[in-house]
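I'll show a typical protein example:
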Amino acid sequence: MSHRDVLSDFTTESVTLLGETKEVFRIGSGPAIILIPEIPGITPEHAELARRLSAEGYTVVSPSVFGEPGRPMSNGHALRTIARACVAKEFAAFATGSTRPITAWLRALAEREHASCGGRGVGVIGMCFTGGFGLAMMLSDSVVAPVLSQPSLPLPLGAARRADYGLDPNDLARILERTATGACVIGLRFTEDRAVPAERFESLRRDLGDAFTAFEIASGPGNEHGIAKSAHSVLTHDFVDEPGHPTRIAYDHVLGFFAARLPD
């Protein structure tokens, strides 16, 4: 059985934008949501999230930016993928005060999908390594509903990187022009997640003000829902699809965010 068999209900396309070609997986119909994979790539859990979103009336578009599409999560696969991603110039994994180069391609993809799928704009969910990309994608007016799920870049080594959220100051100024006219951003993290320090969300609150809504899910000792201290992936690997569970509450809020901003 091929890893890709778990993606048999998706259509695939090689998309060339800005001189770069990436494989894109697509499911559903309606306004577009760009669902950017986390490490190690488009896993079966990623595919399930795409299906849930498409069932709500959206075209879910997942560009393969690393890893092997359809391959299950494993520690070895994740370590190999993150090792390659850390040295890739398009991710700039350690840079502070810098917008990730890959987000230019993703903005072009969002504009393409908006033109194709309609609606008032495009939603974005970035996760883990790609978690902060939705913010940079707001440089395109097509992106009207960005979700930053466990944004892990720059890798939080040292105080400056812990507080940084991966954006050039000039790009931030342009995004603040949008938030001044009503644009909003959602952020998701587990409180004990060392890959996504609390300082990073504090910086987002400071700079974006009321335009930033944070869902910080308790994962410390003795938390009500028994969430492990190691929990990281709010919408996929650590998601619990039960009413009242904090990850489900966060997901439902994301759905409400999209419903309010994407359809005509």
